[in-house]
Amino acid sequence: MGWPATEDHWRGQRWEDEGVTFDGKIPVLGTTMDRLRRHSFLGPIWWRFGRSQWQTVTDALNDTPDWDLIHQRRVQIAENASFLRTVFGPRKPKEPKERRA
Q1: What is the layout of strands, in order, in the sheet containing 29-30?
Q2: I need a surface site. Which of 71, 73, 75, 100 has the fewest CB within 10 A?
Q3: What is the pTM of this model?
Q4: HSE, side-chain direction, 13 A CA sphere, residue 70
């Protein structure tokens, strides 16, 4: 289920193998009275649209990407690509597909 009229304003940008960033997005939070009663205001009662788990209010409002994790994954991808080029040689360009008239 989506919210197409507003989705561009709150949905994070998913990066392959790097998670989601919410830079410049409006945080939309929701909760239930039951969760509020059980955990109090500062507990993991907040659901931020575009995320996959209940969080505390500070975690739900945090837009800071995990740059260390992102850097670590990018380095690993570069090392894997370098290894593959060493073993298999440079990547060959794809042959263009024939166009049908």
Answers
A1: 29-30, 46-48, 54-55
A2: 100
A3: 0.54
A4: 11
Q: What is the CA radius of gyration of the chain?
A: 21
* C-alpha span between 50 and 7 (Å, rounded): 9
63-84 per-residue burial string, b: 16 or more CB within 10 A, e: under 16? eebeeeeeeebeeeeeeeeeee
Where are the domains positioned within the chain? 7-88
pLDDT tens for 11-27 read: 877 766 556 777 778 88
* Mean per-residue pLDDT of the chain: 80
d(CA 65, CA 45): 21
- 21 near 15, Cβ under 8 Å? yes
